[in-house]
């Protein structure tokens, strides 16, 4: 039985990045226990960014690709904020998600329910499900009521 030498910090970082995109903050957190100092981690992250191994822009694209089809803008934004992205990146992500929110909500609703609620209990269940997925109240209202793209602040069935 042979024992392998421990991986270098750069080898660990590239291993993580080869599996999926990571934000700078996330990669720093994963590498910290294996580094001799925080400065060593920062120097490595700077080098990885210069060599284009690490990119928060690519990370945002990856996050949207992985999460947007199943979750609303609020939920994706909440996850993005945990990765300590810059303000400009967060704003661009918010705008990008807002553009497709209604279509994504319709797809999620159609897959899960597919039919309009027939009772107040069923309607409440659908609303709770969609809100837990991070969709906004106005978008949920449009989807459940089967409305078009016109803006509405009213909930379906509210008189």
UniProtKB/TrEMBL annotation:
<comment type="function">
    <text>Modulates RecA activity.</text>
</comment>
<dbReference type="InterPro" id="IPR053925">
    <property type="entry name" value="RecX_HTH_3rd"/>
</dbReference>
<feature type="domain" description="RecX first three-helical">
    <location>
        <begin position="10"/>
        <end position="46"/>
    </location>
</feature>
<comment type="similarity">
    <text>Belongs to the RecX family.</text>
</comment>
<dbReference type="Pfam" id="PF21981">
    <property type="entry name" value="RecX_HTH3"/>
</dbReference>
<keyword id="KW-0963">Cytoplasm</keyword>
<dbReference type="Pfam" id="PF21982">
    <property type="entry name" value="RecX_HTH1"/>
</dbReference>
<protein>
    <recommendedName>
        <fullName>Regulatory protein RecX</fullName>
    </recommendedName>
</protein>
<feature type="domain" description="RecX third three-helical">
    <location>
        <begin position="99"/>
        <end position="144"/>
    </location>
</feature>
<dbReference type="InterPro" id="IPR003783">
    <property type="entry name" value="Regulatory_RecX"/>
</dbReference>
<dbReference type="InterPro" id="IPR036388">
    <property type="entry name" value="WH-like_DNA-bd_sf"/>
</dbReference>
<dbReference type="InterPro" id="IPR053926">
    <property type="entry name" value="RecX_HTH_1st"/>
</dbReference>
């Amino acid at each position: 039985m042979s024992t392998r030498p421990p991986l270098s910090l750069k080898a660990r970082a590239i291993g993580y990045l080869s599996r999926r995109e990571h934000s700078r903050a996330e990669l720093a957190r994963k590498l910290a226990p294996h580094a001799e100092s925080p400065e060593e981690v920062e120097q490595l992250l700077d080098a990885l960014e210069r060599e284009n191994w690490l990119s928060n822009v690519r990370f945002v694209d990856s996050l949207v690709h992985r999460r947007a089809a199943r979750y609303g803008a609020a939920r994706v934004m909440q996850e993005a904020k945990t990765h300590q992205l810059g303000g400009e990146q967060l704003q661009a992500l918010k705008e990008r998600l807002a553009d497709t929110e209604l279509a994504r909500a319709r797809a999620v609703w159609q897959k899960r329910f597919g039919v309009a609620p027939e009772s107040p209990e069923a309607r409440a269940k659908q609303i709770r499900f969609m809100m837990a997925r991070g969709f906004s109240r106005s978008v949920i209202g449009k989807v459940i009521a089967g409305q078009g793209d016109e803006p509405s602040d009213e909930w379906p069935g509210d008189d």
